[in-house]
Amino acid sequence: MNGNDTSLCSIGDLSRLTGLPVRTIRFYSDSGIVTPAVRSPAGYRRYGKDAVVRLGLVRTLRELGIDLPAIRKVMDREVALPEVAAVHAEALDVQIHHLRLRRALLTVVAERGSTPEELDLMFRLAQLSEEERTRLIGDFLDSVFDGLRSHPAFSAVTRSMTPELPDHPEPEQLTAWVELAQLCQDPEFRDSMRGMAENLATDRITETATGIPLVLAAAVRSLVEPALADGIAPASPEAAPVIALLTAHYAKITGAPDDPALRVRLAAHLESMNDPRRDHYLHLLALINGWPPPDTMAPVLDWAVRALRAEGR
Predict the structure, then answer these.
(1) Which of 63, 53, 64, 67 is nearest to 18 (CA)?
(2) Among 136, 135, 176, which Cα is nearest to 293's?
(3) Which of 182 and 77 is assigned the larger pLDDT?
């Protein structure tokens, strides 16, 4: 084959055929990825028609982010293309994970107006390994349920309060995890949840003939939701029978007389249960675990507290 063969292409011809700049083709040629078939008597490079195909493949692989050493091995048949593709796909998975993490964190920072210190904390929480996340949540649940785990209600409760971040979370799940992890480290929230857990351990009776659920929270929902649905105002006379049933139930739980003091105690108890941070935790937990959004007890608890206090006036 000689430099005057009309079946050969000049570097300018290759540039027009492939859309690649001459300098890029020259770089690939110098790198040994696409070599000239011959050189003309004047020293100009001449390429065979297969160079067009090779350059097309090189451009595709480069656009997919595959590095030049790997491309050269593919072109020289030192490694199979599927093997290179699999390695780079795994690398892209890692990059995508980190990009999602960065996007989620920057979104939260922008929305909250976070300080640099808060950003540093959020970044460290988002970077935790699965083992570290498990340890963080375990520490939180231990502080909430310490000494209560033998209670029959709590094995299911602790499972239902445990977040399980997927291997490839969506940005919303990452954001929710960061918020939930921060919430778990809030001492006031831990104390509030500990109080709720202790109340849950005692707010039940062994038997009932009323048909009202045994657990106080379930009893409140069972009695108050129909009143809310009927539009009964908490300070109205129509609310009195609902409150009478509720206080009777609470008196049976506590073994205390159903008197004004018990109603004050019950109102304070229900108010402590109505912590918006608990609802926020459950909302974040549902996002992380891919569960349906949880129902809130806030309207029911608010109605009951207002009705109890209206009766005490």
Answers:
(1) 53
(2) 176
(3) 182
14 to 43, 53, 60, 102: CA distances (angstroms): 17, 10, 16, 41
pLDDT in tens, 188-209: 999 999 988 887 776 665 554 4
Prediction pTM value: 0.64
Helix (H) or strand (E) holding 46: strand 45-47
Structure tokens at 214: 């045994």
List, in order of start, the domains of the chain with CATH numbers: 9-79 (1.10.1660.10), 92-186 (no CATH), 203-311 (no CATH)
Alpha helices in the chain, H assignment, sequence order: 11-18, 22-30, 50-63, 68-75, 81-112, 116-126, 130-145, 154-160, 171-184, 187-202, 216-229, 240-254, 260-273, 276-289, 298-311
Asked if 305 and 242 count as a contact pair (C-beta separation under 8 A), the reply is no
- Alpha-carbon span 9 to 34, nearest angstrom: 13
Question: Distance between CA 137 and CA 289 in Å, rounded?
Answer: 14
